[in-house]
Amino acid sequence: MKTIELNLLGKAANKKKQRKLKFSIIFLYIAIWYFSIFILINIYETNSYMFSRYKNETDKISSELASTRSKLARIQFLYNKYKKIKLKENTYIESLYRPGKWLNKMISISKAIPDNITLDKLSVNPNATSIKDEKIILSGTVAIGEGINSLKQLNSFENNLKSNISLMKDFTKVEIKENEIITKDNRSIMSFSVGIF
Question: What per-residue confidence (pLDDT) applies to 159?
Fold first, then answer.
């Protein structure tokens, strides 16, 4: 027996179904479109954030490199200067401690001694490395008596040493380090020490 299908709703039901289907497709299309835009915006913002972080880091590294380069250049400059000074220092020390050089220094010191001064001791400090260290220490006495101004004699000795160009060529200053009146062989004398730096 053959079945016969009757469409009682007619064309109106078909149109309703088509409208529903069309609405669903448009809604789905709009939803996909909005979702795609949302994803693209998120990707853009993430990339922008990552780019800004990366740029900040690269800028920081660049500034550190620039700072390090200037420090390295300064260290290199100071090291080269140090090498030159060290080379000159070795030459200076070699020439300073030659016997002939010291003979001239001793002659210069002996010429600077006034009549009423006696030198008892001369010490050389070979380990003097700074300008604050004495290279030579002279110790002695000044006679005290009528018509003798012991302090004037001591100051005269200091000035004679300072004004001696041959002596001071290798030194920077002369300084009276100490002086005091003492008794020796029942007579008063002034003992002193002078540093040559």
Answer: 95
